[in-house]
Design goal:
This protein has about 180 residues and is an all-alpha fold. Helix content is about 85%, strand content about 0%. It is built from seven helices and no strands. Helix 3 packs antiparallel against helix 7 and helix 4 packs antiparallel against helix 6.
Amino acid sequence: MKNIGYVLISLGFLIGSYFTVLDKLNVEWGAFSVLLILGFAGVALVQIGGKKEAQAEDKISSNISIIETSLKNLAEKVSQLNADKASINTYDMRHRLDEMLIDDLNNFVEARQTIGHKFSLNSYADVMSSFAGGERYLNRVWSASADGYIDEVNEYIEKAAMQFKETQQKLQQLLSA
């Protein structure tokens, strides 16, 4: 369904664009309108296909597993970085973040919409609010590390660890309910 939608979008908008440039002064509005509607129908098919795909039971189960695993890894790794912060050179902290966390962050972000599909949008917002806080703190740590601000690195890696633990707790509450 999504592939058909993409074909309709391409055909509708490309051929529609062609009709608008055939004559500078007179656009064939009838043909253009039909092709525009065809393109919008393609957009609708892509949206419907994506929603069905995202709500498939096996996809939801797989994504929840990915979310749990990546969040567990993030909480553990950031806590470990926080525990080791005294022995890590301030300028090296950003490299550690990149090496240790990028895959888990990406995995979580790619699967995150499943929280809304499985539970509710309020649950999604609650979990993502904590997660986004942790992510913002990691960004602060990264920037402070690049600039050599040791106090800020130490303060925000601790805050990030707390945010990811909170996110993990919120997810566990959803899963156990």
